[in-house]
């Protein structure tokens, strides 16, 4: 359900002082074709099987060693960031250059919800490489 915006003191919604941030707006990204495509892939039975297999193989979070509940695409969905991260991890020849080709093939990493949120924030702000290098130093 989309969050309702209420005008302040008769001002139009666009002029309201505190509009709803996009991360709180349930409708954010729902019309983006790439987002819709990804959402359909995540809902597929094939993804659920991949997810279950990953979490069974690695039940602990790769960062904090707590109980993992998320199967994450280590290289993410941004192809440019993925190239740098793959090169750092020496996966350049094995990781597909397009996120659609990597979706079911990986590489994957098991994470708990808080660690997954931190990784997602890094990826969304263009800092996936920084997160990956920090993760590698953390686990070695």
Task: Provide a descriptive summary of the structure in words.
With about 140 residues, the chain is mainly alpha-helical. About 45% of the residues lie in helices and about 5% in strands. The protein contains six helices and two strands; from the N terminus they run H-H-E-H-H-E-H-H. The chain has helices at about 35-40, 45-55, 80-90, 100, 115-125, 130-140, and strands spanning about 70-75, 110. Helix 3 (about 80-90) packs parallel to helix 6 and helix 5 (about 115-125) packs antiparallel against helix 6. Mean pLDDT is about 80; it is low at about 5-25.
N-to-C CA distance: 43 Å
Elements, N to C (H/E) = HHEHHEHH
Hey, roughly how much beta strand do the residues contain? 5-15%
**Rg:** 18 Å
Structural class per helix/strand content? Answer: mainly alpha
Beta strands, count? 2
The order of strands across the largest sheet is 1-2
Low-confidence stretches: 5-25
Q: Share of helix among residues?
A: 40-55%
Helix count from the secondary structure assignment = 6
Q: Which geometry do the CA atoms define?
A: globular
Mean pLDDT: 78
How many strands, which pairing sense, and closed or not: the largest β-sheet? 2 strands, antiparallel
State the gist of this model.
The protein has about 140 residues and is mainly alpha-helical.
